């Protein structure tokens, strides 16, 4: 569904190349690389539709030709930058997930509300709905962020370090949930992560930004030691 051909990734200089890569629905993909190697840059480039060269296509359509709203219906990014606002309740924040589907009034339809309600149930968020988004714990904020991404109902979900700051059981819970979402709702879920052992355990595919070659390569199965050598050169 998401295909890269001869792409260079980087802002003002090339950080690495993606010669050829095709990601499919149902896959739970980990993106691994050293600090500053360009994991967030790839996610940002996808959301913004900015690739200096090469070709990225989704379901056969050239990604850079899609309008902003068309891209918003295809892809969602959950990052760790949102720390909440005192005035924004969890329920209101989740409703923003339907924003790209509403008309100019911004009002949700009954159908939109059903979608929001569905993911509130799946992620067990009932007890948090009236709480201010600025008061959530890291684990709660992560679950709320994932719910908002699901509410957007895009076939591609990108999460930048979704397990950062979480305790051990919550990391397991989030990884298992993301794998389930990919498989059961037929979406492609990609995470950037430094939790390499969790990625090996839970993800169906590992993408490594290789330190020596500066090439992004895909692995279906890889050991901890092989991964460390390829990603960090040690
Ligand atoms: N807007 C920007 N303009 C120019 N350079 C940028 C910009 N954003 C990031 N960079 C640079 O691009 C490189 C890759 O950064 P990026 O955040 O993608 O790495 P990362 O792999 O996600 O790192 P980490 O694991 O530390 O989060 C870094 O050298 C960074 O300084």
Automatic annotation (TrEMBL):
Residues in the signal sequence: none
Keywords linked to the UniProt accession: ATP-binding, Cell membrane, Ion transport, Iron, Iron transport, Membrane, Nucleotide-binding, Transport
Protein name: ABC transporter ATP-binding protein
Keyword Membrane: yes
Single Gene Ontology MF annotation: ATP binding
Entries under InterPro entries matching the protein: AAA+_ATPase (IPR003593), ABC_transporter-like_ATP-bd (IPR003439), ABC_transpr_CbiO/EcfA_su (IPR015856), P-loop_NTPase (IPR027417), Siderophore_ABC-ATPase (IPR051535)
PROSITE patterns reported for this sequence: ABC_TRANSPORTER_2
GO-annotated cellular components: plasma membrane
Species in which this protein is naturally found: Fluviicola chungangensis
GO biological process: iron ion transport; transmembrane transport
Source organism, top-level taxon: Bacteria
Keyword Iron: yes
Domain ABC transporter: start-end pairs: 2-231
Membrane protein topology class: Peripheral membrane protein
Intracellular or extracellular location(s): Cell membrane
């Amino acid at each position: 569904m998401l295909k890269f051909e001869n792409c260079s990734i980087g802002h003002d200089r090339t950080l690495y190349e993606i010669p050829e890569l095709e990601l499919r629905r149902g896959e739970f993909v980990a993106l691994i690389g050293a600090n500053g190697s360009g994991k967030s840059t790839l996610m940002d480039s996808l959301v913004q539709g900015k690739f200096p060269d090469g070709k990225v296509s989704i379901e056969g359509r050239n990604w850079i030709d899609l309008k902003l709203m068309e891209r918003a219906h295809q892809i969602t990014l959950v990052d760790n930058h949102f720390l909440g606002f005192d005035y924004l309740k969890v329920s209101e924040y989740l409703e923003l997930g339907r924003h790209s589907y509403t008309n100019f009034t911004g009002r949700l339809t009954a159908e939109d509300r059903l979608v929001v309600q569905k993911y509130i149930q799946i992620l067990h968020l009932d007890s948090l709905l009236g709480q201010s988004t600025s008061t959530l714990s890291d684990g709660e904020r992560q679950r709320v962020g994932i719910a908002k991404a699901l509410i957007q109902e895009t076939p591609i979900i990108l999460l930048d370090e979704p397990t950062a700051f979480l305790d051990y059981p919550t990391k397991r819970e989030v990884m298992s949930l993301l794998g389930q979402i990919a498989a059961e709702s037929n979406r492609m879920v990609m995470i950037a992560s430094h939790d390499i052992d969790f990625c090996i355990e839970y993800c169906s595919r590992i993408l490594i930004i290789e330190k020596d070659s500066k090439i992004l390569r895909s692995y279906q199965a890889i050991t901890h030691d092989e991964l460390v050598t390829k990603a960090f050169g040690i």
